[in-house]
Amino acid sequence: MKTPLVSVITPCYNAALFIAEAINSVIAQSYTNWELLIVDDCSTDNSALIILEYCSVDYRIHYFKTEQPSGSPCIPRNIGIQNAKGRYIAFLDSDDVWLPCKLEEQLPLFNDRHTAIAFSDYEKISEAGARNKRRIKAPAITDYKKLLRGNVIGCVTAVYDISKVGKIYFENINHEDYVMWLSILKKGYIAQNTNTVTALYRIRKKSVSSNKLKVLFWQWNIYVRVEKTGYLKAIYYFCHYAYKAFLKSRK
User: Fold this and answer.
1) In principle, which of 35, 118, 120, 246 could form an S-S bond with 109, CB 3.0–4.6 Å?
2) pLDDT in tens, 142-170
3) If pLDDT is split at 50, 70 and 90, which confidence band does 1 have?
4) Does the global pTM surpass 0.85?
5) Residues with Cβ within 8 Å of residue 151, at least 6 apart in sequence
6) How far is CA 243 from CA 149, 163, 207, 236, 246, in A?
7) Residue 187 three-state SS
8) What is the DSSP secondary structure assignment for residue 173, as one 8-state letter?
9) Counting Cβ atoms within 10 Å, is residue 4 exposed (0-12), middle (13-18) or buried (19+)?
């Protein structure tokens, strides 16, 4: 029986230092029926040359480029989703890394008809790639109401099933991945965790999400303007979120 195709979406902007490691981590997957769609957001370094070199030796790797720099991962990711041919959509940023059994461990979770997202725990690594056992543990199962208390689904670990929910695109909003998971689970589905570490998330000093005050504002905006929870519920969920974010930041 032919295994389902997984479409891996990787946005890339000036990631020459890391993109080869990200690509190699997909090539090393024990589950081999995948396509990797790398969308270059008009990089000015030699990222494109590195990507095209891989495209020339592996037919599963495809190169796309935005018409102009977008300054956000949303547009590159959406270009990838639009061109994806797989039943499953997975995400890997250009500076992150998957462990070899990621897809093999996650795809069986979709045998449960209620599961639309598979995810996992992940490990933080330094910008240089050093591992220090900084594991971010997530709950075994989450649904829409639980997810409102804070995002427990790391984008680097997430896979969703388009046979259940169709192609879902990112909104051009901060915390765009969190908004996507909420939109999927709002349909009545759940997300399941493998309860294993399947990915390495690189902490970079200049990342947008490193500004904690901005992140807090983004979260409040999602509750009030996107999910329209009302102010009382927004305060309740925001307190849960802030506490979880504090615990995560200490790891």
Assistant:
1) 118
2) 999 999 999 999 999 999 999 999 999 99
3) low
4) yes
5) 175, 177, 178, 181, 241
6) 10, 35, 22, 11, 5
7) coil
8) S
9) middle
